[in-house]
Amino acid sequence: MKNIQWFPGHMAKAVRMMEENLKLCDAVVFVLDARAPASSFNPRLADMVGAKPVLYILNKGDLADGGADMAASAMQKAGKPAVRIAATMPSSARALTAAMEALTAEKRARLAEKGVNKPLRFLVAGIPNTGKSTVINLLAGGRKAQVGDKAGVTRAKQWVRCDAFELLDTPGTMPPSLVNQTLARRLAYLGSVNDDILDREEVALALLAELWEKYPAALAERYGIDGGAPLAMYEQLCRRRGFVLKGNDYDYSRGAIALLDDLRKGRLGKICLDNADDLREVGLI
């Protein structure tokens, strides 16, 4: 599979914008995908933050299994406050607000001693399609930030006022160089890399191999896959879904689109592709 690299010009502009606006913010929220928390972490953003307090949100937790809880627990033990949520569920708002209040409790106490009562400002950052704008809308109690299911929806900064905070929504930014291609592939699976630059069929083959290693029951239940080489599993998927062309050739393109859509929409069940070694490699633990 060809190396995945994606850093369009608007991302470089977004990084500069974040660097300029960080001084206006009291704390930072990094939004990660709970299904791949290490893969969806951009170390370059962490380098920019410096000493500001950071909260790590493992979003899309409703689509993740216990691996996400392991990741959040390991990060907390490493001194990195983390909370698993599903920003599409209103019930997550309370846990998220409590985590943000705990993160800034010391600063709020110092301001209170001086008689200052003002909302604290959070910069909300992350790679594309992790749900940053959905997190902001959860806190704001409504759709105030632009959302979408395609990488790169947010292109400009947006300030959103909540009851207790002011939130700066920022465009999703990838690292300029995706050094670890295993993690990069997982971003492609989950839609954080623009599908238009990918060979979906190659991505599908890699995904089938990884899922068979980690979640074989999901492939068996959804597609009747019983193992074999990735191409053989791909063809079993196409047969089960009826993606067969004239002459009994397989419609690999439709098969790839269906597989990726099933993964992203949770139809293959709850998953977490990253492990502790992945977290350690990107510096989260």
A few lines on this structure:
The two termini are 29 Å apart. Helix content is 44%, strand content 11%.
How far is the N terminus from the C terminus? 29 Å
- CA radius of gyration is 20 Å
Strand order of the largest sheet: 3-2-1-4-6-5
How many DSSP-defined strands? 6
Shape: elongated
Structural class: alpha/beta
Taken in chain order, the helices and strands follow as HEHEHEHHEHEEHHHHHH
Beta-strand percentage range: 5-15%
Low-confidence regions:
146-155
Main beta sheet: strand number and arrangement?
6 strands, mixed
Helix proportion: 40-55%
Number of helices: 12
Averaged pLDDT, please?
A: 92
Features:
285 residues, alpha/beta, 12 helices
What does this structure look like?
By secondary structure, this protein is α/β, with parallel strands linked by helices. It is 44% helix and 11% strand. Strands 3-2-1-4-6-5 form a six-stranded mixed β-sheet. The longest helix has 15 residues, at 200-214.
